From TrEMBL:
Domain SIS: 123-254
UniProt record, GO biological process: carbohydrate derivative metabolic process
Highest taxon listed in the record's lineage: Bacteria
Lineage: Bacteria, Pseudomonadati, Pseudomonadota, Alphaproteobacteria, Hyphomicrobiales
PROSITE patterns (alphabetical): HTH_RPIR, SIS
Annotated SUPFAM superfamilies: Homeodomain-like (SSF46689), SIS domain (SSF53697)
UniProt GO molecular function: carbohydrate derivative binding; DNA binding; DNA-binding transcription factor activity
Name of the protein described by the UniProt record: RpiR family transcriptional regulator
InterPro entries referenced in this protein's UniProt entry, alphabetically: Homeodomain-like_sf (IPR009057), HTH_RpiR (IPR000281), RpiR-like (IPR047640), SIS_dom (IPR001347), SIS_dom_sf (IPR046348), WH-like_DNA-bd_sf (IPR036388)
Domain annotation HTH rpiR-type: ranges: 4-80
Length: 254
């Protein structure tokens, strides 16, 4: 097994790992040079987990211990071309892009399973019955809500993208009746403003749809329907691709 095989396995299986192993796996993926050069206890401290968690990750990978994982990374580091600067990335060119592509592909594949299809259909049914649709998101998530709103408008539905930071939104929501459906995008625990807006909408009789990566999130708990998406390991920046794909599949079912 080499570093590439280890990275691929961690990415493909990442969302199936227990929470502590996810943290350890993220550290290994994002800091391969540290894996090669630092002690296991030092790595565990930096990752924010116990050293036994790092050992369990190595065992999960089928290795005899964490030293075996360090040895694999150390060999890759030694084999890097001598022309590379000492402070240059551990990975060969395109490594992060390949990791991201693999994990995004794995995340997208989950949207085609039966459970996700049922969630998408339930969400689409709420949108079909609504007289007005608000698509809500903040920061990067607004890219997702904007895309859905534009897609629904193109299909001649009464939809708009809402910025949770706008003051007029709460005032207008208080005047809105039960015919409203609010689809809120909330990844990585979600923006508290999005959660508050969804909560207020629900109290006004609106139907709430959550697009989230955690079925126990605050947004999912108040939603009438939830569509779960898997978010790739952040690496350098979060990916909105699975969430965009999810709302496209919802729109396709409307």
């Amino acid at each position: 097994m080499d570093v590439t095989a280890i990275s691929d396995l961690l990415l493909i299986q990442f969302n199936k790992l227990p929470p502590q192993l996810k943290i350890a796996a993220s550290y290994v993926l994002e800091h391969p040079r540290d894996v090669a050069l630092l002690s296991m206890r030092n790595q565990a401290r930096r990752a924010g987990v116990s050293h036994s968690t790092m050992m369990r990750l190595a065992e999960w990978l089928g290795l005899e211990g964490y030293e075996a994982l360090r040895a694999i990374h150390a060999k890759t580091l030694r084999d890097l071309p001598e022309t590379r600067a000492p402070d240059s990335p551990f990975q060969l060119p395109g490594h992060h892009a390949r990791l991201r592509a693999n994990h995004v592909a794995a995340s997208l594949s989950k949207l085609g399973d039966q459970r996700s299809a049922l969630q998408q259909s339930a969400a689409a049914a709420l949108l079909q019955r609504a007289s007005e649709i608000w698509c809500v998101g903040s920061c990067l998530e607004k890219v997702v809500s904007d895309h859905l709103a534009q897609t629904l408008v193109a299909r001649e539905m009464n939809a708009q993208s809402i910025d949770v930071g706008e003051e007029w939104v709460v005032t207008q929501l208080r005047e809105t009746g039960p015919g409203l459906a609010l689809l809120a995008v909330g990844l990585n625990s979600g923006d508290c403003r999005t959660v508050r807006l969804a909560t207020l909408a629900s109290s006004r009789g609106a139907k709430v749809i959550a697009v989230t990566d955690c079925e126990k999130s605050a947004l999912a708990r108040i939603a009438d329907e939830t569509v779960l998406v898997e978010t790739p390991v952040p690496l350098t920046f979060p990916s909105m691709v699975p969430a965009i794909a999810a709302v496209e599949m919802i729109a396709a079912r409307v």
